[in-house]
Input
Amino acid sequence: MINKTQLKDLAIFNGTPAFNEKLHVGRPNIGNRDRLFERINDLLDRRWLTNNGPYVQELEQRMADMLGVKHCIPMCNGTVALEIAIRAAGLTGEVILPSFTFIATAHALQWQEITPVFCDIEPHTCTINPWRVEAMITPRTTGIIGVHLWGQTCNVEALTEIAQKHNLKLMFDAAHAFGCSHQGEMIGNFGDAEVFSFHGTKFFNTFEGGSVATNNDELAAKIRLMKNFGFAGFENVNYIGTNGKMSEVSAAMGLTGLESLDEFVAVNYRNHKQYQRELRDIPGVKLLTYNEAEKCNYQYIVLEIDQEITEFSRDQLVKILWAENILARRYFYPGCHRMEPYRSYFPHAGLLLPETERLGKRVLVLPTGTAVGIEEISQICQIIRFLVQHSHEVKQKLLYPSDESVLAH
Ligand SMILES: *Cc1c(COP(=O)(O)O)cnc(C)c1O
Output
């Protein structure tokens, strides 16, 4: 570990970067290679590469068992899974969702010419604020999509009540919440459907992949047809479908990953605890904590930076960390409502999204997962602690980089 004790030790002020190699957020968790290669050999021997092969079927069964849900239909990725679930559930017109999410949640609606209506979030969970939802319902509203951001679950009870009261469909983008629970019940069981992503950066991956979990048989049957072009039998097409199928090689990765899931959680939990210990009592730096009474994948290390205290901003911190090869990310900045086409469609959306705007400027996500070790976390925390301890000089030096008197500190 490089102990940074002076401003000039910082890479942004021409010191040596703390890490030779870039430390990414969301390096994949990878299970046992031998088991993976065995499975890949098997599927090649079988010459069954896709179209609901044995590995896809096995993965579906295992996931459904693990989540205690009737259907957990494997798909080619989370975005297509969202699109198909939205279409199968019959959403049209307007759908209410948070802006504080990955852009795919909004795009999956707009792609089908459904208007995404952005709703503000609750400050403590960063999930959609049910009381704001109710105010945004119009005669065109057909549904609500909550996002279990960073594995923190939405206020499912309040949202369910509102959906029932107004006769709306309720779905969840659960891309971050595979393996998480809410009130003791696994995510996958709430609303009309919940959608997972198994993208390489997610807690559990199938290279690319996703799934739709639902306890609704009718909806599941529709989704199964839609993900396979609408085919019901070899030459019979029932309605418009697309290609949302997961391949066998992805399912092989998934089955292998599932066998190591407990280990992934254990590493993430250990990392989270270490960040918590080593970032403790740093003024202006708050680590998002998880409800330990629930199951959680601990996949995201989220910091909230209070510039009033740290003096430097979240964006400046990100820049400083990047110079050290710590590639912290601003998830999710600047919010969907500030990206195209939504920015042009709804130029004043931000007025109704004060918490989204506030948090969007304050949060950053740090590296964790099985690719990040204890030493590396110590180094990251040491740098952050040093920065806050010297916040005033850091800020001055960022403003006046050539001022040698500051450098001498
Ligand atoms: C990753 C992600 C998606 C999209 O999933 P893909 O599998 O990458 O298509 C959707 N919503 C959220 C919140 C995500 O983080």
DSSP finds 16 helices and 14 strands in the chain. The pocket of pyridoxal-5'-phosphate is lined by residues 77-79, 101-102, 104-105, 147, 173, 175-176, 197, 199, 210 (CB under 6 Å). The chain has a mean pLDDT of 96.
